Amino acid sequence: QKEVEQDPGPLSVPEGAIVSLNCTYSNSAFQYFMWYRQYSRKGPELLMYTYSSGNKEDGRFTAQVDKSSKYISLFIRDSQPSDSATYLCATGGSGSEKLVFGKGMKLTVNP
Amino acid sequence: DAMVIQNPRYQVTQFGKPVTLSCSQTLNHNVMYWYQQKSSQAPKLLFHYYDKDFNNEADTPDNFQSRRPNTSFCFLDIRSPGLGDAAMYLCATTDRDSGNQPQHFGDGTRLSIL
């Protein structure tokens, strides 16, 4: 079992849709969680960072962590064509310098 | 303002010809990473520096080397690039001493091998 599994893509939605992106992880030592957005031919850009179970909201984006089930999600409300990108979940353990990444989900929002 | 800067953005080299990719940062972070990312795959960690301490991943080929002459700069040297080394190379930084902070990435160097 891989340490981080991310839902396979690609995902295509109409503009305005609510998007749900999901990852599961296997190591209970993972303590902090990130979502990165990566546009084509660019580096990953930090979108959301959270250290605890629960929800964290930033504009149209909500990150959700459930440590009991080792499940992390990113919700995008009112999706826009500019949200079209690959979304990577990542997680790391307390005191560790390393991140473990999901494989990435390519999202296309159609106008 | 770009905080992790990678140069060049695109690099073409010949099979077996050494190549160096560079990364600089204005964040004064003490950890710098090099990742390799191939199409539709997650970034794969090659190595990282915590200050001057070099940490190599077990499965990083000997063909890949790195140098960090000071806090701001880090280089990736590929001694004899093979066709399989064509990829996007990403540099990232973090500040370990500030707790569990996320990594900040540059825009990468896309390496092509002729």
How is this structure best described in words?
- The complex is a heterodimer of chains A (111) and B (114).
- Chain A contains no helices and 11 strands.
- Chain A is globular, with a radius of gyration of 13 Å.
- Chain A is mostly beta strands and 111 residues long.
- In chain A, strands 2, 4, 5, 9, 10 and 11 form a 6-stranded mixed sheet that branches. A 5-stranded antiparallel sheet of chain A has the order 1-3-8-7-6, with no helix packed on it.
- Chain A has one domain: Immunoglobulins (Immunoglobulin-like, Sandwich).
- Chain B is mainly beta.
- Chain B has one domain: Immunoglobulins (Immunoglobulin-like, Sandwich), CATH 2.60.40.10.
- In chain B, the strands form 2 sheets. In chain B, strands 2, 4, 5, 6, 9, 10 and 11 form a 7-stranded mixed sheet that branches. Chain B has a 4-stranded antiparallel sheet with strand order 1-3-8-7, with no helix packed on it.
- The model of chain B has no long low-confidence stretch (mean pLDDT 94).
- The interface between A and B is medium-sized, with 25 and 25 residues.
List keywords for this structure.
heterodimer, A: mainly beta, Immunoglobulin-like, 5-stranded antiparallel beta sheet, B: 114 residues, 4-stranded antiparallel beta sheet, 11 strands, 51% strand, globular
Largest interface: A-B, 25 and 25 residues
The CATH class assignment of chain A is Mainly Beta
Fourth-level CATH superfamily of chain A: Immunoglobulins
Instruction: Give the helix tally of chain A.
Output: 0
Q: Rg of chain A from C-alpha positions?
A: 13 Å
CATH fold description of chain A = Immunoglobulin-like
Oligomer: heterodimer
Helix and strand sequence of chain B: EEEEEEEEEEE
pLDDT below 50 for ≥5 consecutive residues: which ranges of chain A?
A: none
What about the largest sheet of chain A? 6 strands, mixed
Distance between the termini of chain A: 37 Å
Give the averaged pLDDT of chain A, no decimals. 92
